Amino acid sequence: MYSSVFLAGNIFERILLLSYLCSAKQNNQNYMIMYSTHYRYYLTVATVAFVVFLCIRVISYLPYIHTALAESICFWELAWICCFKAKKENIPLRGVVLAILIGRLFLELPERTAYFRDSLISLPSPVICIVCILLGTFCTLKPKSWVYFLSLVIIYIMNVFIYDAWRDYILTLKTI
Questions:
Q1: pTM for the model
Q2: CA-to-CA distance for 57 and 37, rounded, in angstroms?
Q3: pLDDT: is 4 or 108 the higher one?
Q4: Burial bucket for residue 39 (CB in 10 Å: 0-12, 13-18, 19+)
């Protein structure tokens, strides 16, 4: 009988292999060496994203900190840095983004599926983080100052206005 950690690792490995094979160039390079290098980089990125997620969760218990905005900025920056390095080393960006998403959502998805109704009030948090990761990747692809500025404005609007509007909506549903 397989443990859930083994199955999750096996699924993670298959997803990364599929992502790599979809983006591999058909030339005379040694694919196994490239695959192991990419796999190690993806695993490192997923681990860093997981650690950042845990650090943000620890910080969320401190008073007077807007943790949703801090989490968004951290994951935007993490995506930008990891994708920038991957672009230099010719590592497919799809796998990097997928590794960040897996590291970010690894603990949160089982909890959200088990207690979905109770976690509705904080549902924008993972959605905003996914958008921030995509914006960080876009900043790597288009390194212009207006892209960075627009990304930060979008992050701020999502965290301040959309998050508050969602919270008010959910609170009105609970009072009805």
A1: 0.76
A2: 30
A3: 108
A4: middle
